[in-house]
Amino acid sequence: MTTPDLHAALQLHFGFPAFRGLQQAVVEHFLGGGSGLVVMATGDGKSLCYQLPALVGSGLTLVVSPLIALMDDQTAALQRRGLPATCIHSQLEAGERRRRLAAAQSGEVRLLYVTPERFRVPEFRAQLQALGVTRLAVDEAHCLSQWGHDFRPDYLQLGALRAELGEVPCLALTATATPEVQAEIQRVLRLPASPVFRTGIARDNLFLEVHDTPDEDTKFAALETVLQRTGGPAIVYGALIQDLLRLETRLLRAGYRPLLYHGELSAHERRTQQQRFVASDTALMLATPAFGMGVDQPNLRAIVHWQLPRTLEAYYQEVGRAGRDGLGSVCALLYRAEDLEIQRDFITWANPEAELATLVVQHLHGLGDAAHVEDADSLRERFLPRQRRDGRIDTVLRLLRHGGCLSGEPGRDLRVLRTPNGDELEAWFPMAKRQHDLRALLRMVRYATEPGCRKHTIHSHFGSDDGPENCGSCDVCTDPEAWRAAHLPPPRTVRTARPDAVEPADGAPVQRGDWLQVPRVGLCCVQRVHRRGKHWHVDVELANDLSRRSLDLSRPGWVKLPGRAAPGG
Description:
- It is a single chain.
- This protein is an alpha/beta fold and 569 residues long.
- It has four domains: 3-198, Rossmann fold (3-Layer(aba) Sandwich), CATH 3.40.50; 206-342 and 438-487, Rossmann fold; 368-428, no CATH class; 508-560, Thrombin, subunit H (Beta Barrel), CATH 2.40.10.
- It contains 20 helices and 20 strands.
- A seven-stranded parallel sheet has the order 3-4-2-5-6-1-7, sandwiched between helices.
- Helix 5 links the parallel strand 3 (85-88) and strand 4.
- Helix 2 (23-31) packs across helix 3.
């Protein structure tokens, strides 16, 4: 395809008048049958590098993506443009999965998104041979490196999958890969001689700052300063759900109405919170790091980290979601030394010893057909007593399942298939991994506490030389207030009301934060909304004693009180 034809296709399918950066070079290389690694800053248009070739080239492009929500968002955005894309994942009914697979096989679909876990299903791998896959795109490719910040074991099988597909051209894409991780991506996907397309990671419109906050009051004051000084949507990232809930309460008392996103919300609530955030131009979202990937919100004016992230890779991926419209945005890290303990715990949980895995397998094997009665909590109580929050058991079960030693889910249909050998245990639970992760955390601490240019520190970490030692857009290199005055709108207090104009997803009659009057229960506040079959259920907190209770909203008599504040509050 000629250059004029490519520009015409870009305008037709995506409405862009021109390519950005290295996009055109990557598209032409991939269309010509070449493979490669793309290291491109968040917001620089990685997805277009494989989406446009899929639309103008022949055959089917298979896209591996780490999150179901991310796939759903990406395919929905393409479908709104009338582009032939779909996704297949475990949350779809079997009949719908078959329908989408048939559409891909018939040529109706040009882009098929799947998670790497889908390749565990032997029938799906067999069906791939009949789909005519001509290209493979691996999004968030850093997930395949155990030395990266977001390791997903199922990504490791993608090299073998590519071989099964006939070594089709493969494009691996990431925004946050160190030189070490880039080499691992190329090794696993069998791309040793393929070019690396690096666009650089410098973002002059992002202002990086760190606030030293010795206590919670100082930290909250710093957060308010950022929120009141920046207009537009903002995200506050927290490492622990319980801390986000406490922060939500404090912000409510201060007159803010934040949105909330974390893994313990129901799927309905997560969708609703995300919809409200995207629909608003002033929304404040409190979230765990799971939020933000795939969210198309170009005008994010502030990203605040309530706690220290574990790695510079994770940190820069999250702050990279700000300012995609090219305008000024503030990225503030609220540093408190006590928060280090949180990340040390996460590192311990992510790196269990091989001996623990051996004990778990031996115990489950000894239970025989009764292994299914054990869930993660009972195993934790047996092997890690008095450590209820310890996540090592969950990591062991996940890695043993990935290695083919276990099948099913704990507490439901768990089965022992085989016992791992010593070499496998050494590979799955490497002793060096914990030390590697601790060194990564130390680099994050040094970023927050040492006096050097913050952007130069990050660029050096990623092996990039695209920025000077004095960037002019961090709190070490320039005066924060002078930068804000030059790049941000005038100060204004925002986010004092929740964006309630968006209707709840799926037609839910209530939402989190609503107050209900319920017969024989009294006044209560909705904490969680979820659906069972055709009926809506809620978990509520009673106003008289703060106890929790579940209610079936199909039963009559309950009344939603007007307004969002507690009556009489």
